[in-house]
Amino acid sequence: MDTMENIRVALRSVSANWLRALLTTLIIAVGIMALVGILTAIDAAIYSLSSNLSSLGANTFEINRKSDQVRSRGGRNNQKESEPFTYDQAMDFVEGYNYPAAVSVSFFAKGATTVGFGERETNPNVSLYGMTGNYLTSKGYEIEAGRNFTTREVQEGGNIAILGADLVDELFSGKHQFAVGKEIQAAGVRYTIVGTLASKGSSLNNNDKRILIPLQTAKRYYASNRTNYDILVAVPDPSGIDAAMSEATLTMRRVRGLRAGQENDFEVENSSDLVSIIKDNTVTLRLAAVSIGLMTLLGAAIGLMNIMLVSVTERTREIGVRKALGATRRNVLLQFLIEAVVICQLGGLLGILLGVLAGNAVVFFTGGSFLVPWLWIGLALIVCTVVGLISGLYPALRAAALDPIESLRYE
Question: Which of 86, 53, 106 is CA-nearest to residue 269?
Fold first, then answer.
């Protein structure tokens, strides 16, 4: 009896006991779905976050406050940040930075804001950002209609704004040209729209649900003594990113008044470094996902072994007939092993399908494209094969060891 014949016999046995096999298959499918689904969801989240950070480009870096973990007396870990970058420090950095690069300064002015135009009004989920002229280029935004702020408007301020794509859709039915020149109200202030942004797609930061206003205007209405100004540097040539970051470190040390030997109270971070950190930190999540899937599969393996033992008992006379007709111990062993693997693979295929669909539900909500996790699909098929072999080995050995004469007498 060759391998294909053993597979056909296994399929006939599965179909003959379809309800029992179905229940076992569903248990295996749940385990594989948990394994593939969670891993796919993690990959989708990383891909979405990487895309958002990559939108800054390989030629950009940020200067942020330094953040450290400090243990309190109660044993808790608290986050301690250095002093914020003030407006004067940010402007001193822009003036003192001698590397040929575009420096933008911005800050988060207000969140959870409602924006209105005429009788239309958005949900309170819009963010206001104050910015300088280089902000759009550094962040990877493109003007869809209208224009960017002029240098004079950034320095002197004014009640003007650039609108995100989602807000154009909600307030102006997606008509970008029509929106330019119209007056909106946000956070109790009226702004005239001078430009609209092309869509960047859904993301964790709601890039299309924001209003950009001149830095001086944002400072006048929303800044305080504790406001932190974000500094973003875009270098024309990505190969010069290291030199630009070194120059930025020296310039910021002078701006912050740090003495020689004194530790930096800020961090210079490239977006690619952040992506690597995020990917490294998801190793624990992946291990947790694998553990959840394997625990579920352990229960499925025990159930499958029990079913295979019951199958050996029920088919004792059949085994005796096969041996009497010339089937060897190896034939019987392979038959039951293949039967266990077939049941596992059927459950695995169903679990993979459900897992890919469940994982891509996360992709849908994060605005990404459909993701086929070939690596995790391959892992799931290997795991199913191993589970089938382990679960079916003892019942197969027991079936192969049956005496043909005693088997034929079995009722």
Answer: 53
Same domain, 9 and 141: no
Rounded Cα distance, 409 and 321, in Å: 10
Q: How high is the mean pLDDT of the chain?
A: 81
Answer yes or no: pTM beyond 0.85.
no
- Beta strands 60-65 and 266-270, pairing class: antiparallel
The verdict on 215 and 304 lying in the same domain is no
| Phi/psi at 259 (5° precision) | -85, 165
> 3-class SS at 145?
strand
Q: What is the extent of the structural domain holding 96? A: 83-264
Query: Please, are residues 159 and 192 in contact by the beta-carbon 8 Å criterion?
Result: yes
CA-wise closest residue to 234 among 384, 164, 114, 133: 133
Task: Assess whether 221 and 141 both reside in one domain.
Answer: yes
Q: Report how far residue 402's alpha carbon sits from residue 409's, in angstroms, rounded to the nearest whole number.
A: 12
Q: Is residue 11 a contact partner of residue 330, using CB atoms and an 8 Å limit?
A: no
The closest alpha carbon to 99, from 248, 255, 268, belongs to: 248
Taking the C-alpha atoms of residue 127 and residue 10, their distance in angstroms, rounded to an integer, is 61
Tokens 């294909």 label which residue? 4
Of 85-99, 135-149, 187-201, 301-315, minimum mean pLDDT range = 301-315
